[in-house]
Amino acid sequence: MANEQSSIVFSRVHIEIINQQKVGFIADFAFGEYIATDTFFKELSKVQGQLIDGGKVTLGSGQEVDPQTTGGLIAIQIYMEALESQRQAMVGLAKLGLNVEKQVWKNI
């Protein structure tokens, strides 16, 4: 058992390789804000197009709702509010990340 532990070599290179494997996607905070806004407006355009066509509206979950009924309109409203809340949360996280990054660089 002692021989197995002594044969493991820890070095900065080894630790760096492990850390790089943990981070599969590297993006800055501004790009995260762009993705949130882009996704929101694409989904908004999709729902708006379906409403203009006058047919049923397919939500992100795959559920189809009829905009001619009260329940369908409420479902669309709740769905759009949830999308907007998600966008605001992602934008808020991006701004928080930018502020933290700014403070880190200021204190170096």
Question: Would you mind describing this structure in some detail?
Answer:
The chain has one domain. By secondary structure, it is mainly alpha-helical. It is built from four helices and two strands. Helix 3 packs antiparallel against helix 4 (70-106). Strands 1-2 form a two-stranded antiparallel sheet. A hairpin with a 5-residue loop joins strand 1 and strand 2. The mean pLDDT is 79.
Helix content: over 70%
Question: Largest sheet, order of strands side by side?
Answer: 1-2
End-to-end distance, in Å? 43 Å
Q: What is the structural class?
A: mainly alpha
Q: Extract low-pLDDT stretches.
A: none
Tell me, rounded to a whole number, the average pLDDT: 79
Query: Can you tell me the number of structural domains?
Result: 1
- Rg calculated over all Cα atoms: 23 Å
- Strand residues, percent: under 5%
| Oligomerization state | single chain
Order of helices and strands: HHHEEH
Task: Report the major sheet.
Answer: 2 strands, antiparallel
The dominant shape is elongated
- The tally of helices reads 4
Q: How many beta-strand elements?
A: 2
Keywords summarizing the entry:
mainly alpha, 108 residues, 4% strand, single chain, two-stranded antiparallel sheet, 4 helices
Short description:
The protein has helices at 2-6, 12-22, 29-53, 70-106; strands at residues 57-58, 64-65. The protein has 108 residues and is mainly α.
Helix-strand layout with pairing:
Elements: H1 2-6, H2 12-22, H3 29-53, E1 57-58, E2 64-65, H4 70-106
Antiparallel strand pairs: 1-2
